[in-house]
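Protocol step 4 of 6.
Sequence for RelA/SpoT domain-containing protein (Streptomyces gilvifuscus) entered exactly as in the expression construct, tag removed. Do not edit the line below.
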Amino acid sequence: MTLTAHDAYRRYRQERPRIEEAVELTAAFIRRRAARRHLSCQVTCRAKEVSSFIKKAYRKTEYTDPWKQITDKAGIRLVVPYSSLLDEALDLVTGDGLTCIRIEDDREKPGFEDRLEYPRLHVQIRAHGEWLDPDGAPYECEVQIRTEASDVWARMSHSLMYKPEATTDIPSDVRRSLYRLIALVELYDSEVERGVTALAEHPDFSRSNRLLAEAERIYQTFSQHPYDRTLSEDVVDVLVDTIGDEPGYADQLVEFAEQNRGRIERAYEQFGPTSEQFLEHGRYLLVSQPESLIIFERLANALHDLQETWEGNLESRLLTDLARIWGVRW
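Step 5 output, structure tokens:
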């Protein structure tokens, strides 16, 4: 059934809560998959605002069926640190567990280098889970895959250029400035990749850095709350000694988090930074930190080593608080 712009608006206003839940579940699934693959990325999501939907429905006069043709009702943005991770991110959202409907990839599109745009990489997927619309069709999500640099460019160019494709309307000096900015974005992207690769191969790049990066990836599947990076570094420098050269610990930590997901979620909900316990007593500081995942795993599997290593290096109350949460008798 074809809907007018007004009918599509009324339907979207009614269905938006279900669409919002569907996109949040899909984003959470993508975060968990990224953690299992050890892929560093930021995943955010949103259901289109009702006001934005109706404006788009009326503005796009070429739409004959706005409900079906507005495909970004649910949107997910997946941002990776640099460009060589784009293909891995693409594989992530088109692999097992998600159904890909179509891919729009402008990276190899002829003549794209002459346009004042960054190459688009969008994937239309079915929302994860069992959510269906009133017609019995699964909801869809538009996934935008970007590097950190191209994400900055996209947000900047959106505010500067109402219609980026109409480059002939932009004064020549401004066009030159924008082309230089695109070049800088590409240069920044390549230098970030070069630096990350060099650091990873450097002998002084510590096991602590690798362990913290792993914990951060997994923590993002539980919480988007900001944390204190300096505190994390201090704690992980101690925790790494309880792990030693244990092979495959990154996979072990991912598996532990998945097997205990419900228990960890409850711990963050009851003792995290927005909980009454935290706000009233100012304790349970490490519950709002990614290294809490390593501590929970060590409490479960290496309690003696954890106690010995912690003593004399960090405040004992920080550990006893987490032990109490995890139900370990101290």
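Step 6, annotate. The first strand starts at residue 42 and ends at 47.
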